[in-house]
Amino acid sequence: MPTFKYAGKKTELVSTQQTKKISILAAIGAAAVGVAIFAVLNMQVPSTNTGGPEQQTIVSSMQGSAYADFVNQLKSKGATVQPGGKTQQDMFTINPYILLVNNHDIWVFEYPTEVDAKDQMNQVSPDGTSVGGRQIQLIAAPHFFEKGNLLVFYEGSDQNMLNLLESMLGPQVAG
Hints:
single chain, two-stranded antiparallel sheet, 9 strands, five-stranded antiparallel sheet, disordered N terminus, 2 domains, alpha+beta
């Protein structure tokens, strides 16, 4: 195969068949890069800081999870939903996702199984003011909902929010 020098480097001319192979490999490489970029952009990165848009959880990467279904159902009912990552707390055994729904904070606990969620919910007092015998620091009325493997906590008294949550999760189970 003939060679030529370019900028002091020895370079071989490439045959048409090699050019086709290189083009195919380049296209595959570009597609792989595109998939990788898409995956990174849609990745959920749990956070303990819910302070700004850079901390928002991107729910689309959790397709099929009860949490993602819950968020999608909220949106389908016309709610404004802003995911805010995860936060640390000591009420339950897992940390919740924080959602800003129609300007109200909602904590969503997603457990591996319905049994795990029910076990945790059984720790909540009927009035929703204590979990496992420990008092919760509250600034407004507590509302706990349970559906499947989700526990949802809302602290507030907005009747529209309560109606929305009850339409999706059924009556509150504590609070």
